Amino acid sequence: MIAPVALTSGDPAGVGPEIAVKARALLGAELPFFWIGDPRHLPQGTAFCLISDPGEALTADPALLPVLAQPFAAPATPGQPDLRNAAGVIAAIERAVALAQSGAASAICTAPISKIVLKEGAGFAFPGHTEFLAHLGGVGRVVMMLACPELRVVPVTIHIALADVPAALTPGLLEETIRITAAGLARDFGLKAPRIAVAGLNPHAGEGGAMGHEEDAMMRPLLARLAAEGFDLRGPMSADTMFHARARAGYDVAICAYHDQALIPIKTIDFAGGVNVTLGLPFVRTSPDHGTAFDIAGKDVADPASLVAALRMARDMALARAA
């Protein structure tokens, strides 16, 4: 049996604590995990047990949420983020990474954070979770992949304006994304020769230059060179015809030029169950594909489906990496 999965608290004023409790109730003994956070932030009436070592989560009562206590500066009120708790959120992430690096945790799953709260409350200097985890893992570049049973997508450019995408989509960035994605699928998903589809930037993948030149000038030569190395590549493909069921059967992952090109199809196919995966880290990391949802926090209406899927994927990735 592998070590349990570490689940960070995320922002305690968001839905993280309540979906952690719901996930434990749904998963029970199927998937041992423990929650890193302040017990005061759990919903009132939560049945939990304090643990001092992650290994205790393997034998904990399935009806109880194993909690590795991480003290925060202040109580939490659902829907009302508190800057005083920013340092605690960061400390929980750092602790989870340290446990994963030591082998005490097989993987980490991170609940949603508020980047504004962390920046204003603790001087957080990173754009988000992913960049902070890359820093903690000592790697310079990682790849964000969104995954559900029917589709995996990787955006090459992420949170930038659409007008800035053509300049940001360089041959070097695209090549690095393809290499990290292929290595991650081989190591963490058991796909030794993953089939990679690459979406064009322009409508109809440029249509021979009639609708743009990036595909012919940059993408096709790069893909041909990588294919000659042994990568199983197809594209650049027209993005409007590559996400229906029959097309998806022809590849294991779709690498997309920009954020919405990747996220619209996966959120349409499986809005509740999508998982955010970071490829290229020295440890396994997943996250539910949603935010803190301050507007519904504490109302007991938050859907734990994405967190459950993220915990299961973390476990499966850890098993694949161990094998």
What does this structure look like?
With 323 residues, the protein is of the alpha/beta class. It has 2 domains: 1-140 and 282-323, Isopropylmalate Dehydrogenase (3-Layer(aba) Sandwich); 150-269, Isopropylmalate Dehydrogenase. It is 37% helix and 17% strand. It has helices at residues 16-27, 86-102, 115-122, 129-137, 165-168, 171-189, 214-229, 245-248, 259-269, 305-322; strands at 5-8, 33-37, 48-50, 65-69, 107-109, 143-148, 151-155, 195-199, 232-237, 253-256, 275-279, 285-288. Strands 3-4-2-1-5-12-11-6-7-10-8-9 form a 12-stranded mixed sheet, with helices on both faces. Strand 11 and strand 12 form a beta hairpin.
Coarse morphology: globular
Number of helices: 10
- Indicate the proportion of strand residues: 15-25%
In angstroms, what is the radius of gyration? 20 Å
Within CATH, the superfamily of the largest domain carries the name Isopropylmalate Dehydrogenase
- Poorly predicted runs are none
Number of domains: 2
Mean pLDDT: 94
Please state the structural category: alpha/beta
**How far is the N terminus from the C terminus?**
12 Å
CATH architecture of the largest domain: 3-Layer(aba) Sandwich
Strand order, largest beta sheet: 3-4-2-1-5-12-11-6-7-10-8-9
Catalytic activity: 4-(phosphooxy)-L-threonine + NAD(+) = 3-amino-2-oxopropyl phosphate + CO2 + NADH
Pathway: Cofactor biosynthesis; pyridoxine 5'-phosphate biosynthesis; pyridoxine 5'-phosphate from D-erythrose 4-phosphate: step 4/5
Organism: Pseudogemmobacter faecipullorum
Keywords: Cobalt, Cytoplasm, Magnesium, Metal-binding, NAD, NADP, Oxidoreductase, Pyridoxine biosynthesis, Zinc
